[in-house]
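Help! Submission page says 'invalid entity' but I think these are all valid:
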Amino acid sequence: MNNVLIAVVLTLVAAVGTVVVFTRRPERQAVTLSAYGILLALLFMVLAAPDVALSQLGVGTAIVPLMVMLTVRKLHRRR
Amino acid sequence: MSPRVRLLVLAVGGIALAVLVVPALVGLPHFGGSVHPYRTHAVVASVAHHSANVISSINFDQRGLDTLGEESIFLASVLGVVVLLRPAEEETETASLGGGPVLESTKLAGYAMVPITLMLGFNIVTHGHLTPGGGFQGGVVLGTGIHLLYVAGTYRALQRARPIQVFDWGEAIGAGAFACLGIASLAMTGAFLAAVIPTAPLGHLFSAGTVPLLNGAVGVEVASGTAVLLAKFLEQAIRVRPAAKETEP
């Protein structure tokens, strides 16, 4: 059962990771990256690493996409 | 260097890496297996120091020096961001903080989530030695949680609730406290970052020796650092503008 769960989440991570790579515009990529971060946290949970999952959730899902969004906003304003 | 030679160098490097990495990967315990040499030692050491969360015990007790290094990296990164994102010579900080309209539902959700998020972050920091989480994770939640005020409404409210000076200090104090705790234990036991405080039984709030104290120090540092980091990005995105050119006709 656990192996099936790991396989499912791992497949989802691979799929959404591909989506992130093929998202061209940075402001959209921030959103897909955020979704990818949640899935990665889920994977860490399934692999029994809740501490890493929490770090991932904070940094990968909240802070990094937020920094990308703020940077994009700044650059758009300058144009 | 011709492309041919370059390819050759790449091949040599790749083969050398493969020779080193492949045997290492083959020698790893199998995925999902029941043999975990590292765990066998770490869990015993963690229980011996009455730390219920083994990860925290590893981070702050068994390899505290590594964690001090990681905290220093974090401090240096935030410092780098502060230096890079300061207004440049041809930029000025404007006072105008005009924001667009915010949906009522976004406002409600934002304001409702601020206290919950801060409580959660505080809880993650203080229970880091008992349950998953710790200073870093809780600190990130705290530092990010404050910025919900911006999502919910105004930059002005955020500025009032987040005196940036305090967080500048907080970051340095947190990092300093970590090092001081290490030096204190060095003076008392002869080992840097050794657990010096007598431990309560496993699972109590005041157990696990120095782990909760170090968690607190890291929590203060990371919460402040994250707040400063996001504040600098927000400032650049919202307040810093190119200065009006004086030489314009």
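Support: the input was valid. A stray whitespace character was the problem, and the output above is from the cleaned input. The two ends of chain A are 53 Å apart (CA to CA).
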